[in-house]
Write a structure and sequence with these properties.
The chain has 151 residues and is mostly helical. It is built from 5 helices and 4 strands; from the N terminus they run H-H-H-E-E-H-H-E-E.
């Protein structure tokens, strides 16, 4: 029961982070003609803040990214195992222990590759600042008398 509650909270964190990120893009982006590019985050994204907070301690952010990817793969595998492989409204294959056809396993591998591809794309929406900039800071350079002044 505790594991189920934990995974529901993780799914809720992903849902809230995606909602806040997409709301920020809709409200504060450059518009549809520029592909909803956003130049700075205006709304606080909890997953983004968590990854930025874990970044100074070396492996923790990588562990969280790995856990997120494995969560998506495992939940997708559980869904495919329970539903089977469908093409629109036609059931193509059932996934059963020791009785799955080889063609179904090939379809399953293709679907899993697409899930991993989608996860790598979705990370940009879940944690935009962490993925694009990380802990980078801007250094303002002011030129005075042929020399650079660093604040």
């Amino acid at each position: 029961i505790l594991l189920g509650v934990f995974f529901i909270l993780v799914a809720l964190l992903f849902t809230i982070s995606l909602f806040i990120s997409n709301l920020d893009k809709a409200l504060h982006s450059a518009g549809i003609s520029y592909g909803f590019i956003i130049f700075g985050t205006n709304l606080t994204n909890p997953l983004n803040e968590l990854l930025l907070a874990l970044q100074p301690v070396f492996p923790l952010d990588y562990i969280l990214i790995t856990v997120m990817t494995m969560y998506f793969v495992m939940t997708s595998m559980a869904g495919i195992r329970n539903m089977g492989i469908w093409f629109f409204w036609i059931r193509l294959y059932k996934i059963r222990p020791k009785r799955t056809r080889p063609q179904a396993l090939l379809f399953l591998c293709m679907i899993l590759l697409l899930i991993v591809l989608h996860t790598s794309y979705m990370i940009y929406s879940l944690a935009p600042q962490y993925v694009m900039y990380g802990s980078q800071k801007y250094l303002v350079q002011v030129r005075k008398n042929n020399s650079y002044n660093f604040p």
